[in-house]
Write a structure and sequence with these properties.
The chain has 385 residues and is mainly β. The chain contains 1 helix and 21 strands. The protein has an 18-stranded antiparallel beta barrel. The protein has a two-stranded antiparallel ribbon with strand order 17-18. It is globular and about 60 Å long. About 4% of the residues have low confidence.
Length: 385
């Protein structure tokens, strides 16, 4: 039955490719509001569905429907955007993995008459996907909220205050749910017309179902940001990050930074890095020390044809020794490298985009059986009204 469904799904994609006559995908205008419903169909081949070690992989095909709506109200003083989505994924043979995911996000930007800018960001997702901090596929929800106020104190000095909340909840009873409340203050001062130095102090509380006590979190950074040219902006900061409680006393070097470079009219390059600490989902009274490095490149070959390449590296280390399922005590650490590439074609019918994507993931783990490689190839089409 599933094979026939995949055949039907493939026929639908091919049918979508032949469509050319339709109104441009510019959304539905309702006075100051713009609504853009969309839907996509994607066929995927996965070489290692269960992220098993080499020699034990199990491959399968799947098809995925994704649907949602973008709602946008642009304004110089009060800008609002909302995104709501759902996803249905079904496998060819591994029917027990069929699932439905959903989520939403919202942003609100307010500029007061006095010159203060207030940013509100909120997102929620309930998905079944690879959780690198768990080391396997898991079903979990993530809720994020951030509110920040930004204001020029003098002609050369700027102050910013940000509150952040994050909560992660798992369906599996064997994994710990956790949350954090963090407050960050940043002061920057212009040293030239193109550069400024800044200092940031972030502190707050972290807690987990598996931890006996709440932990005090801190991250102190000193850095510099610059605009070398109209096409290059960059920022880099370094400092110390840690948690303190009755169960932990961790202090580690921290850093964060980014660079955005418009290499040419059709080529854009961005890169970033950050290091932070979170409560561990897989172990009680423990914490994940996380390092993330990223690079993204987009190249618009033609007006209608775009290539994108993304590289990700995750260094995930448990702060305290970990007892494996076999009773061994290890220093648990995973290095995860992911490389992906995609080709997007904007058809003459502006509402239709055809795409093909490929991704390779490789994990090295200190835990026996934790190494794996996964190759994924997808193609599909997306319609945006």
């Amino acid at each position: 039955m599933k094979i026939s469904r995949l055949t039907i799904a493939g026929a639908l994609v091919l049918g979508m490719l032949t469509q050319s006559g339709a109104a441009p995908g510019e959304g539905i205008q309702l006075e100051e509001w713009n609504l853009s419903p969309y839907g996509s169909l994607q066929l995927t081949q996965d070489s290692n569905v269960f992220l098993d070690e080499d020699g034990a992989e199990q491959a399968d095909d799947s098809y995925q429907y994704k649907y949602g709506v973008y709602i946008n109200r642009p304004s110089e003083t009060l800008g609002l955007s909302v995104y709501v989505w759902g996803l249905t994924k079904q496998y060819d043979t591994l029917e027990s993995l069929d699932r439905t995911d959903f989520g939403e996000s919202a942003s609100l930007d307010i500029t007061t008459p006095g010159g203060t800018t207030i940013f509100f960001r909120q997102s929620y997702s309930n998905v079944e996907d690879v959780d690198y901090l768990v080391g396997e596929r898991a079903k979990f929800s993530t809720h994020r909220v951030s509110v920040s106020a930004d204001r020029d104190v003098t002609d050369k000095t700027n102050g910013k205050l940000t509150y952040r909340f994050k909560a992660k909840n798992h369906d599996a009873d064997t994994l710990n749910d956790w949350w954090e409340h963090l407050l960050r203050g940043t002061v920057s001062h212009d040293v030239t017309e193109q550069s400024d130095v800044f200092g940031a102090i972030e502190s707050g509380v972290q807690d987990s179902d598996g931890n006996r006590d709440k932990s005090a979190y801190y991250n102190v950074l000193l850095g510099m940001s610059t605009r070398w040219t109209d096409k290059i902006t960059a920022s880099a900061a370094a400092g110390v990050v840690g948690v303190n409680s009755d169960i932990a006393d961790i202090s580690e070097p921290s850093f964060e930074g980014y660079i955005n470079w418009a290499v040419a009219d059709r080529i854009n390059l961005s890169a970033g890095a950050e290091r932070y600490i979170e409560p561990a989902s897989i172990d009680d009274d423990n914490f994940d020390k996380v390092t993330v490095l990223r690079t993204d490149l987009t190249y618009r070959i033609l007006t209608s044809l775009r290539i994108s390449v993304s590289l990700r590296f995750y260094d995930l280390e448990l702060a305290n020794p970990y007892i494996t399922g076999t009773g061994d005590v290890i220093d648990k650490r995973e290095d995860v490298f992911t490389a992906s590439a995609g080709l997007n074609y904007q058809s003459p019918a502006k509402f239709l985009v055809v795409f093909v994507e490929g991704r390779v993931t490789d994990q090295d783990s200190t835990e026996e059986g934790g190494d794996y490689t996964e190759d994924i190839v997808s193609f599909g089409a997306r319609v945006l009204y």
